[in-house]
Amino acid sequence: MIAYTTLGTNNMDRALAFYDALLGEVGGQRAVEVPGVVLYAGSEGTPLFCVAEPWNKEDATVGNGSMIGLAAESAEAVDKLYKRAIELGATDEGPPGPRQRGELSFYAGYFRDPDGNKLSFFHM
């Protein structure tokens, strides 16, 4: 259902260094590059991940309550990827561990990228 997700950046070079390294850990790589926009692809048929400078030339801002969840193969992979995000300059929003929301059980670690966008690596 999801074709792509876009996160805005105010510093494309910093964002690309962060996402090249972090998404490279899970097989993501740059697939399309045009001025102000870079799309990352994973395995065939999966949604694309886009980093972009805002089209309207206004500052990129973070949405309160907005978050992107990135799938991990295991709880151990969540731990590794979360740690890598922090090493690359992300800030902690909740360390990896088991989570429970009603009947929903999963394992996740939450962080903000260098632009302040909230993401998580999770495993069910």
Question: What do you see in this structure?
Answer:
The structure is a single chain. By secondary structure, the protein is of the alpha/beta class. The protein has two helices and eight strands; from the N terminus they run E-H-E-E-E-E-H-E-E-E. The chain has helices at 12-24, 75-87, and strands at 4-8, 29-34, 37-41, 48-52, 68-71, 91-101, 104-112, 118-123. The strands form two sheets. Strands 1-4-3-2 form a four-stranded mixed sheet, with helices on one face. Strand 3 (37-41) and strand 4 form a beta hairpin. It is globular, with a radius of gyration of 14 Å. It starts with a strand and ends with a strand. The mean pLDDT is 95.
Secondary-structure element string: EHEEEEHEEE
The number of strands is 8
Identify low-pLDDT runs. Answer: none
Main beta sheet strand tally, sense and closure: 4 strands, mixed
List its salient traits.
alpha/beta; globular; 124 residues
Brief synopsis:
With 124 residues, this protein is an alpha/beta fold. The protein has helices at 12-24, 75-87; strands at residues 4-8, 29-34, 37-41, 48-52, 68-71, 91-101, 104-112, 118-123.
